[in-house]
Specification:
single chain, alpha/beta, Rossmann fold, N-(1-d-carboxylethyl)-l-norvaline Dehydrogenase, domain 2, 2 domains, binds pantoate
């Protein structure tokens, strides 16, 4: 696997528990790490085998859990050891990643995953599983779960094969478009988007545009539900800082190009104006990350 963030480590532990040999690929010179994983009922120590791409065995299955903007480079970095038919699963925010991977590696079977599992890093060596959620995996035109999915099904709670993964990814993207950039620009926790009338009106405006783009792109269920779903997620995660706000506060690059940026590309392709989303996209980019 590539990407040792909180979600990556959580999935590494699930897959290891299901009997997979998981190796965390890291850059040369990175110190070996033992991670303490705080699950709801136990604290376990996650002993991950670690190696550089140069030192590792041939890669038969690759899980990428990096930030969206690092996925392309991560995949390229593994190229020398990647077996020609190795399934690659990208578990990252946003959309457009599968297309980029196909541009670089047209014959590689690339799949995507999306999860509502919550995990965060408490400190350098500790990861806390903050909330249970569902995980959907699919892609590469594969309707039925392929054999490699068996340990996912076994080790990851509430994990499902999704023959229409693009709709699941789009639905998550739509929610992220309605919440993340606004919280990043206003420096507020999610709940304020419901509490402050001015911000709630902006969420509604963004959702109207997102709904029109969703209809045009054929994501009807999202088009019909996004306004209500966005408010439900805002209330359910009221005290959370969105991942984009966390990135801005930590001085990291944001994933805006793969979230609102992707929405705007789809809007453009269908000739749908999305001025509120475009303005927020420009504002987040001007935050300098
Ligand atoms: O990206 C995030 O932070 C989350 O997906 C969510 C729920 C939209 C905001 O906390």
């Amino acid at each position: 696997m590539l990407g040792a963030g909180a979600i990556g480590c959580l999935f590494a532990s699930y897959l290891q528990r299901a009997g997979c040999t998981v190796t965390l690929l890291h850059r040369p010179g990175t110190p070996e790490r033992t991670l303490r994983l705080e699950l709801a009922d136990t604290t376990t120590t996650l002993q991950l085998q670690q190696a550089t791409v140069a030192d590792c065995a041939p890669i038969e299955h690759l899980l990428i859990t990096t930030k969206a903007y690092d996925v392309r480079e991560a995949l390229r970095s593994a190229q020398q050891k990647l077996q020609p038919d190795a399934p690659v699963v990208i578990l990252a925010n946003g959309m457009g990643l599968q297309e980029e991977a196909r541009e670089d590696f047209p014959t590689l079977p690339v799949y995507c995953a999306t999860t509502t599992q919550g995990a965060h890093r408490v400190d350098a060596g500790r990861i806390r599983h903050a909330g249970k959620g569902a995980t959907f995996v699919g892609g590469a035109g594969t309707v039925l779960p392929p054999p490699w999915f068996a340990p996912w099904k076994m080790g990851v709670e509430d994990c499902h094969w999704d023959a229409d993964i693009d709709s699941a990814l789009w639905h998550k993207l739509a929610i992220n478009c309605a919440i993340n950039p606004l919280t990043a620009v206003h420096g507020c926790v999610n709940g304020e988007l419901a509490e402050q009338p001015g911000l709630a009106a902006q969420v509604a405006g963004l959702c109207r545009e997102i709904s029109q783009v969703s209809y045009a792109a054929g994501y009807t269920a999202t088009a019909q539900r996004i306004a209500q779903t966005a408010m439900d997620v805002i209330r359910a995660t009221a005290s959370n800082q969105s991942s984009m706000l966390q990135d801005v506060e930590a001085g990291r690059q944001t994933e805006i190009n793969y979230i609102t940026g992707y929405l705007l590309k789809v809007a453009d392709a269908h000739g749908i104006p999305a001025p509120m989303n475009a303005a927020l996209y420009a504002k987040v980019n001007s935050l300098g990350n």
